[in-house]
Fold this sequence. Notes:
Elements: H1 2-7, H2 10-43, E1 68-69, E2 74-75, H3 84-92, H4 115-126
Antiparallel strand pairs: 1-2
Amino acid sequence: KEKVMKLFDLKTVSFAFASIAVLALVGCGQQASDQGTTQVAADSHEGHDHAEGEGHAEDDGHAQGGWWCNEHGVPEEDCSLCSTTAAAKFKEKGDWCDEHNRAESQCFQCDPSRAEKFAKLYEAKFGEKPPQPSE
Length: 135
């Protein structure tokens, strides 16, 4: 009887409760993170004439898991033409080209040499030159 009673002492019950609470909090944190990713994905195709999944992930034999926007030659999450969230951040900072309706720092039409910065990011990550932007 004493062994059974020791299983249910205050320390054991407290430890079990604390463990369950930690697991619940960790699980909730992952769910919130997934929701944030969904929001970025929802923003990423507004104003485009291609379907979800087309034109980004594996065009031209460059498989990079959607990290790179093949259409515009910049990382997908920073693409001011694909992501309304990114565009708002660039506008807020005053980094905007009104003539071409994109971030000034990503406006390769005004200054083609700006593309070099982004190409170097791609090369550092994948060890090869990025695909040429299609737009």
